[in-house]
Specification:
The chain is built from 3 helices and 7 strands; from the N terminus they run βααββββαββ. By secondary structure, it is an alpha/beta fold. It has a 5-stranded mixed beta sheet with strand order 5-4-3-7-6. The protein has a two-stranded parallel ribbon with strand order 1-2.
């Protein structure tokens, strides 16, 4: 079975590449130095600094592997290829949340980049999926475990 493509914006790709570079170049050296210093303290069986450094090394290597896997299956979306009047990858949308009676802004990204705390929602999320291909003035209804929510598209921007 083919691996799922990781849809990324250019911004998301750059961020992952920068993180990978930082982990490989700087973080690996930092943790290697910590391990070296902890070894020099003698008995490793009760050396908390050594154990912590080894745990950190494992975490760094796991993250490097994860990023490399994401990048290997990355499909970078050129946001300029899409119609500016419809919501698609890379669109920043201003919505009116009818239930909360307020405006909310989200950027539509692939699931790899999604971070609701930063206002980035996945095209695969219930809201993101409903918003794809919509235009200003369209209303979408999103079913969630705690009810149905209504959003009206107020504005579509490209970053």
């Amino acid at each position: 079975m083919a691996e799922k493509k990781n849809i990324l914006t250019y911004e998301g790709l750059k961020k992952l590449e920068d993180e990978l570079q930082e982990l490989k170049v700087n973080k690996r050296q930092e943790v290697a130095q910590k391990i070296k210093e902890a070894r020099e303290q003698g008995d490793l069986s009760e050396n908390a600094e050594y154990d912590a450094a080894k745990d950190e090394q494992r975490d760094i290597e796991a993250r490097i592997e994860e990023i490399e896997k994401i990048l290997k299956n990355a499909e970078v979306i050129d946001e300029d290829e899409f119609d500016k009047d419809t919501i698609n990858f890379g669109s920043e949308v201003v919505l009116y949340d009818a239930d909360m009676k307020e405006e909310v802004t989200y950027k539509i990204v692939g699931s790899t980049e999604a971070d609701i705390l930063k206002g980035k929602i996945s095209n695969e999320s219930p809201l993101g999926e409903k918003l794809m291909k919509k235009k200003v003035g369209d209303v979408v209804m999103v079913d969630a475990p705690d009810g149905t929510f209504e959003y009206k598209v107020l504005e579509i921007k490209r970053s």
